[in-house]
């Protein structure tokens, strides 16, 4: 079971993008000790099952916006419930580079990458509100 979010053209029902996410358990193999966050058994997290744009939307920065939308949804779910990591399974080198560019880390020699939810949440906040200086925090 996955939650699917669909983007449509303005004033239309034509689908131009979508993503699907689902809760998952992530095996410890290939995950650094710091990313595990003290878990000694499978780590609770979220899998981005699918992230897709219509060809007419590619090359214009919408992929990053779609990923941000998915990560905001995951961050909200994790903060309300639980979850430590976000994982994606890349299908080709282009997808691998896309996710690496957006801060995901490979898991060993698998076709899976991960990001820590606390890092995702901090990146979303910085993107929305700008980075905080030490003076502003204290």
Describe this structure in words.
The structure is a single chain. The chain has a six-stranded mixed β-sheet. It is globular. The termini are far apart. Residues 133-138 have low confidence and may be disordered. It is built from five helices and six strands, in the order ββαβαβαββαα. The chain has helices at 33-36, 62-80, 93-101, 117-129, 134-137; strands spanning 3-8, 15-26, 43-53, 85-89, 105-106, 112-116. 23% of the residues are buried. The protein is an alpha+beta fold and 138 residues long. Helix 2 (62-80) packs across helix 4. The chain has a single domain (3-129), classed as Aminopeptidase.
Share of β-strand residues:
25-35%
> What is the mean predicted local confidence, pLDDT?
86
How many domains would you count in the coordinates?
Answer: 1
Q: Main β-sheet, in a few words?
A: 6 strands, mixed
With strands numbered from the N-terminus, the spatial order across the biggest sheet is 1-2-3-4-6-5
The CATH topology corresponds to Aminopeptidase
Helix content bin = 25-40%
Structural class: alpha+beta
**The CATH class:** Alpha Beta
SS element count, helices: 5
Uncertain runs with pLDDT below 50, 5 residues or more?
A: 133-138
Alpha-carbon Rg, integer: 16 Å
Write the element-wise H/E pattern from the N-terminal end onward: EEHEHEHEEHH
Shape: globular
User: Architecture, according to CATH?
Assistant: 3-Layer(aba) Sandwich
- Tell me the name of the CATH homologous superfamily: Gcn5-related N-acetyltransferase (GNAT)
Extended strand count: 6
How far the N terminus sits from the C terminus, by CA atoms, comes to: 43 Å
Oligomeric state of the chains? single chain
């Amino acid at each position: 079971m996955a939650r699917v979010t669909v983007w449509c053209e303005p004033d239309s029902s034509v689908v131009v993008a979508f993503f699907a996410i689902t809760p998952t358990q992530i095996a410890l193999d290939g995950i650094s000790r710091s990313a595990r966050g003290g878990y000694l058994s499978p780590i609770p997290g979220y899998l981005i099952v699918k992230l897709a744009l219509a060809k007419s939307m590619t090359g214009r920065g919408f992929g990053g916006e779609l990923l941000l939308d998915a990560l905001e949804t995951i961050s909200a779910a994790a903060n309300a419930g639980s979850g430590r990591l976000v994982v994606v399974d890349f299908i080709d080198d282009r997808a691998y580079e896309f996710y690496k560019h957006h801060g995901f880390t490979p898991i060993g020699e698998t076709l899976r990458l991960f990001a820590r939810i606390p890092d995702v949440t901090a990146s979303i906040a910085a993107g929305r509100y700008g980075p905080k200086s030490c003076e502003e925090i204290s």
